[in-house]
Design a protein that fits this description.
This protein has 19 helices and 44 strands. It has four domains: 306 residues, Beta-galactosidase, Chain A, domain 5; 124 residues, no CATH class; 146 residues, Glycosyltransferase, CATH 1.50.10.10; 76 residues, Maltose phosphorylase, domain 3 (Sandwich). Strands 1-2-9-10-11-12-19-16-15-14 form a ten-stranded antiparallel β-sheet. Strands 6, 7, 8, 13, 17 and 18 form a six-stranded antiparallel β-sheet that branches. Helices cover 27% and strands 26% of the residues. The longest helix is centred in the middle third of the chain and has 21 residues. It starts with a strand and ends with a strand. Helix 16 runs antiparallel to helix 17. The radius of gyration is 28 Å and the shape is globular. It is α+β, with helices and mostly antiparallel strands.
Length: 811
């Protein structure tokens, strides 16, 4: 069942009913000011940090599910309704939600009144614009009232939702004409405030939630709206809001535009205050001056569209498969931008109050983002590296506002260091900017402890190479990519509480997955070292990579597939010897991606085993058989019910690893089959099963053992976005950045046909045409560059050259 449709020309997904299985959301904002908005106008806004600078309040796990947002109530005769249907849920005569690239638009009507609500965050401006156009489609005049509504969060979202004994006393507002200022905390000499304004005189306002809603009333039908009379309330403590009342009369066929602005501003720290609780409004005035007219708003919206068109044009494919085209050209790249901005911090599944930016997560997100805005990728790499410790390990997460490591989570995830090499490698290949390696970067954000970024990479590599277990495989630490695989705990006697291994014993649990990472990214580190002229380090790295390769063959192969790990007592994990959890997806994908077992004939066996044991119609499960009880030596992974999350769920994040691995051995049919199973565009017609948005990837789909097999969870903020873009753009379509140029080596399914691709690479535009007359899955027999035959698949980058015309003949 579908709940809408793709409009590829407009770059929109059009939702045709408010009754989607879950809230289907969009992200507004490109750099500092962000909003989440659902298909019924739910959501919230924040500036830079969803925890510390939350502007509007949102209630997770509430009833109804999506129960707070930026709402507009229309009081028309006997009816009260909303353009996005929530929160009144009054039936409307027509409804559409258009989620576009950086904007959302709501088109609805009732009783001859049409509402067109456009929401977007302008480029380089700290505000959200809501342009509401109301049109009388009848042949008679229409008189009605409009009430706006936002509820302010008291900045720190955690404190806001817990510290009521304080927070119910500190809410403060100020009214200036049609602008309502939220200034809570300003008297504490904090420099920020927010505001909500409309570009016309108002007939009333409310800033107290209790006064606006009424005693013991919900937000579906506020008292002020029912009475058609705002109370002009001024909040003092309790729950500050911003609401405007605007009384309107439209003649037959007349339209009226109203521009609402939710903004954030801050004053310089040294700017003197008029009084402790009186804000200086210069910043707000400057923002509001830009958006007083429809023409100004339309110009800002056009600027946003141009911004995205330019970004998305950097990678553009034309094939006969419309799903490939829309995902590669629009939605997958868009999601990569969102994950770059948010990491895993703020969604409808992540509250934005805890995780912040992930070390591993942000490094992986860069893989799908670096081609869009390389200079922002450069800045992010330096931020991430500054959370690393001197020994090469790192904080697992850091707070986006302070950019300092998250002490609550700490460190000890032993895959983290190698992801930094992955991110830097991707940046270097994309940009050729080796100067970043000379940038001096703090360790643990301490300036007295700093070294060039290249030294950070060396310590990342050496942290892994010097933390090996009994089988010469990398120690897993607290966990590796699979946060729930906690192998350094055990029970000495049956029935006794678990213990962590002591200092004399380890911890000694080992990860075959990290071994695969070490081989793959160790090779990258060696290449980087050679580019730096550090041949001694490169040679040493290559020796250690070779030793790890052999260790995987010696201790990490189980006969038909790669082992997952060894626990603290050197028991195999992910082996046919295990009763449950016999095979895991991660090492099968990553070891083959690293080239392990390809020449020995093991790679094909491992990937065949994945298809035999882990495949389902909705994607590849993370493990099988599922764990049916809790195992102390495995930790959290066995605490989930079978089929969910890390216990045999379908992690869309690592399905691309197997697809990429299939391209390594040249099986384009299987690689594309895997790609399609989790690609939202291909499964749009089962949205009633899948539940999450059909235009973006989700983190997880329930596995075959689950009650609701095929149901997705945790959409938008997932490494699936970056890895799938890498899979499609580099492995399948085959356009791969390298240190010396662009390599073109597709691996496509039979019948895919010829395709064209435009790729901006280091400020040069490559016009690429791939022809496949023999209908092969992989193999390049001839390459022409600018009309001349070229040797090999690598097209060296030439400084100063701005355009390349490339024709690739497969065969």
């Amino acid at each position: 069942m579908k709940f809408g449709y793709f409009d590829d020309q407009a770059k929109e997904y059009v939702i045709t009913t408010p009754d989607t299985p879950l809230p289907w959301i969009n992200y507004l904002g490109t750099q500092d000011f962000f909003s989440l908005i659902s298909n019924t106008c739910g959501g919230y806004s924040f500036y830079k940090d969803a925890k510390l600078l939350r502007i509007t309040r949102y209630r997770y796990n509430n009833i109804p599910v999506d129960s707070n947002g930026k709402y507009y109530y229309i009081h028309d005769g006997e009816d009260i309704w909303n353009p996005g249907t929530m929160p009144s849920k009054t039936p409307v005569d027509s409804y559409e939600c258009h989620h576009g690239i950086g904007y959302s638009r709501f088109l609805s009507s009732k009783n001859g009144l049409k509402a067109d609500l456009l929401a977007f965050v302008p480029v380089n401006t700290s505000c959200e614009i809501n342009k509401l156009t109301l049109t009388n489609t009848t042949d008679k005049p229409k008189t009605f009232s409009l009430f706006s509504y936002v509820e302010f969060c008291l900045w720190n979202a955690v404190d806001d939702s817990t510290n009521f004994q304080r927070n119910l006393s500190i809410g403060e507002v100020e009214i200036e004409g049609s602008t309502i200022y939220h200034k809570t905390e300003y008297r504490e000499r904090r420099k920020h405030y927010s505001f909500f304004s409309v570009n016309c005189p108002v007939d009333g306002y409310d800033t107290s939630r209790d006064a606006f809603l009424g005693h013991n009333n919900g937000n579906a039908f506020p008292d002020a709206v029912k009475k058609n009379k705002a109370g002009n309330s001024v909040a003092s403590g309790w729950y500050p809001i911003a609401s405007h009342q605007i009384n309107l009369t439209l003649s037959a066929g007349e339209s009226r535009d109203l521009v609402f602005v939710l903004g954030y501003s801050e004053n310089p720290q040294d700017q003197k205050f008029i009084a402790p609780n009186v804000i200086r409004k210069d910043g707000a005035h400057k923002i509001l001056e830009q958006f007083q007219t429809t023409q100004q708003v339309d110009a800002a919206f056009a600027e946003l569209n141009a911004y995205w068109s330019k970004l998305l044009s950097r990678y553009h494919v034309e094939s006969k498969d419309e799903n490939v085209n829309r995902m590669a050209n629009i939605w997958n790249q868009y999601q990569c931008m969102v994950t770059f901005n948010m990491s895993r911090s703020a969604s409808y599944y992540e509250s934005g109050t805890g995780r912040g930016m992930g070390f591993r997560d942000s490094c992986q997100d860069l893989l799908g983002f670096v081609h869009l805005i390389p200079e922002r990728a450069r800045e992010r790499i330096l931020d991430i590296a500054a959370t690393q410790f001197e020994d090469g390990s790192a904080y697992h997460q850091y707070q986006p506002l302070t950019k300092k490591g998250n002490l609550d989570i700490g460190s000890g995830f032993n895959d983290d260091p190698l992801w930094l090499i992955a991110a830097v490698s991707a940046y270097l290949k994309e940009t050729g900017d080796f100067s970043i390696l000379n940038e001096i970067v703090d360790f643990d954000n301490q300036k007295e402890k700093a070294a060039p970024l290249y030294e950070h990479l060396r310590r990342s590599f050496e942290y892994t190479s010097t933390h090996l277990g009994p089988h010469k495989l990398p120690l897993i630490g607290r966990a590796d990519w699979n946060d729930c695989l906690n192998l350094n705990c055990f029970s000495t006697e049956p029935g006794e509480p678990f213990q962590t291994t002591g200092p004399s014993e380890g911890p000694v649990a080992e990860s075959v997955f990290i071994a695969g990472m070490f081989v793959k990214y160790g090779k990258e580190f060696a290449q980087i070292s050679r580019h730096m002229g550090d041949n001694e380090t490169a040679a040493k790295a290559e020796q250690e990579v070779d030793a790890m390769y052999q260790a995987v063959l010696d201790a990490g192969w189980d006969g038909e597939w790669f082992l997952r790990a060894y626990d603290a007592q050197s028991q195999k994990i992910g082996s046919k010897e295990c009763k449950e959890g016999q095979i895991f997806i991660e090492p099968q994908g990553f070891c083959v991606m690293a080239g392990i077992g390809v020449k020995e004939g093991l790679a094909e066996k491992a990937l065949d085993s994945v298809k035999e044991h882990l495949d389902t119609k909705y994607g590849i499960m993370i493990l099988q058989p599922a764990y049916t009880q809790y195992y102390l030596n495995l930790g959290e992974i066995s605490s989930y019910p079978p089929g969910y999350k890390e216990n045999a769920g379908i992690f869309c994040h690592n399905n691309p690893w197997v697809s990429i691995a299939e391209t390594v051995i040249g099986r384009g049919n299987r690689a594309f089959e895997i790609y399609k199973k989790t690609c939202p565009s291909y499964i749009e017609n089962i949205s009633e099963i899948h539940c999450t948005e059909p235009y973006v990837y989700s983190q997880m789909v329930a596995g075959a053992d689950a009650v609701f097999h095929g149901q997705a969870k945790n959409s938008w903020l997932t490494g699936t976005a970056a890895w799938t873009f890498c899979n499609l753009s580099q492995a399948i379509l085959g356009v791969q950045p390298s240190y010396d140029g662009l390599c073109i080596n597709p691996c496509i399914p039979e019948g895919f046909g010829d395709f064209k691709l435009t790729r901006t690479f280091r400020d040069a535009v490559y016009h690429i045409e791939v022809k496949n007359p023999d209908n092969v899955q992989k193999g390049v027999k001839k390459v022409n560059v600018d009309g001349k035959e070229h040797e090999g698949c690598l097209i060296p980058f030439e400084e100063g050259k701005k355009e390349y015309h490339v024709t690739v003949y497969m065969g």
